[in-house]
Design a protein that fits this description.
single chain, alpha/beta, six-stranded parallel β-sheet, 17% strand, elongated, binds adenosine-5'-diphosphate, binds magnesium ion
Length: 399
């Protein structure tokens, strides 16, 4: 993990202006946020800086305005949500740089919080334009990045600013980086990775990276079908990317050479139609899938074998459900293995880190998200991290 400065490295911040990049890209319905997890994540950073006497300017994007002002995409829409979470009033500022921000700063007292408008209203943000970044930086004394979820983008507010001001990781960023480092950067071995989800094609880079770094690679979900097919299994009508047979074989070869065991299911749950509890539902060996059947979950024997694998491991990283978990009973394997992982974590024998939009939903559905060591809600940034890529927003924080 690159070394980075945290809020612990800040001296006296009284009266100083903190430019704090946060994630306020909240899911909205009828004008209000349906989930404020992202605000809650950055609350410790914001309040710590404010309580230490800094003037805190929050910097964030909201939706995809593509470099133009959009009346419906102003961060003023989430001002109320941020105030509710923080339990404080904040000042909305309709710009990110220039005289309007300067004037606002002269009104803000030490410990006050200002919310700048959507940084993506300006084309310089996504272009990472140095002049744009400089105009923002001029107003601040230091920069804090607390938005890991945006760290895979090299934008002015996620990357550029870190080169222009003393730069620090916020508390949420620090927590995320520490957890991810424990899972793949510098993990206790053996390490198991669960990779599931619909398609191999969306996770090729993830698989390629993991085979070189983990001892057990557990493949489930629709993508397991592609690997089974590559091994000569007839997967019937299952979701399967037959054009990726060679790729799947190359990944399996690479795993062999790296000493990574790939685990594919040997029993599966199948049906002829994709519906909840269909009459055609049955469990069978992978070699017995009918030509009119689809594999929609891994079977009970495979699930038990995987639980035994996790019991021998010290670290687990998980992305992607093992089956079509949104539809019953194809959530069974995912729920069972997630419960095993959570129990092992609570026993202290496993460090478990999970991420991915549907993965987080599946763990919440299983009721075990709190039982994992860390669950990342970062989406794209989490996947790029699993791909072994350097995240520009993280790299720029390195001292
Ligand atoms: P994440 O968002 O966590 O990265 P993905 O988007 O890659 O996960 O995959 C999740 C999707 O994969 C879910 O919608 C799930 O229904 C689907 N899926 C899992 N197993 C199967 C399967 N056997 N057949 C079809 N779809 C599947
Ligand atoms: Mg998804």
């Amino acid at each position: 993990m690159p070394e980075f400065k945290t809020l612990d490295d800040l001296g006296d911040v009284t009266g100083k202006v903190a430019l704090v990049r946060v994630d306020l890209n909240l899911p909205m319905k009828d004008g209000s946020a349906t989930d404020v997890t992202r605000v809650e994540a950055s609350m410790p950073t914001i309040l710590e800086l404010a309580d230490a006497g800094a003037k805190v300017l929050l910097l964030a994007h909201f939706g995809r305005p593509k470099g133009e002002r959009h009346s419906t995409l102003s961060t003023s829409f989430v001002q109320g949500d941020v105030e509710r979470v923080l339990g404080r009033e904040i000042m909305f500022i309709s710009e990110v740089a220039g005289p309007v921000v300067e004037q606002s700063l002269s009104i803000l007292r030490n410990g006050d919080i200002g919310l700048l408008d959507n940084v993506r209203f300006w084309p310089g943000e996504e272009a990472n334009d140095p002049d744009f970044a400089r105009a923002i930086a001029t107003l601040g004394d230091f920069y804090v990045n607390d938005a890991f979820s945006a760290a895979h983008r090299a934008h002015a507010s996620t990357e550029g600013l870190a080169h222009l001001l003393p730069a620090y990781a916020g508390r949420a960023m620090e927590k995320e980086l520490t957890a991810l480092d424990k899972a793949l950067g510098n993990p206790e071995t053996p390490v198991a990775a669960v990779v599931g989800g619909a398609k191999v094609s969306t996770k090729l880079d993830v698989l390629e990276n993991l085979v070189g770094r983990v001892q057990h690679l557990i493949i489930g979900g629709g993508m397991a079908n592609t690997f089974l097919a590559a091994r000569g299994v007839d997967v019937g009508k299952s979701l399967c990317e037959h054009d990726l047979t060679a790729t799947a074989n190359a990944i399996m070869d690479k795993a062999d050479h790296a000493g990574c065991t790939i685990h594919l299911p040997y029993d599966v749950v199948v049906a002829t139609e994709f519906a909840a509890n269909p009459p055609s539902l049955r469990t069978c060996n992978v070699h017995e899938v009918g030509s009119d059947e689809m594999i929609l979950d891994i079977g009970p024997q495979a699930t038990e074998a995987l639980a035994d694998v996790l019991k021998t491991c010290r670290t687990l990283v998980w992305n992607g459900p093992l089956g079509a978990f949104e539809t019953e009973p194809f959530d069974t394997a995912t729920v069972a293995l997630a419960k095993t992982a959570a129990a092992l974590t609570q026993d202290g024998s496993l460090t478990s880190v999970a991420g991915g939009g549907d993965t987080v939903a599946a763990l919440n559905h299983a009721g075990v998200a709190d039982g994992f060591s860390y669950v990342s809600t970062a989406g794209g940034a989490f996947l790029e991290w699993m791909e072994g890529k350097e995240l520009p927003g993280v790299a720029a924080l390195a001292r």
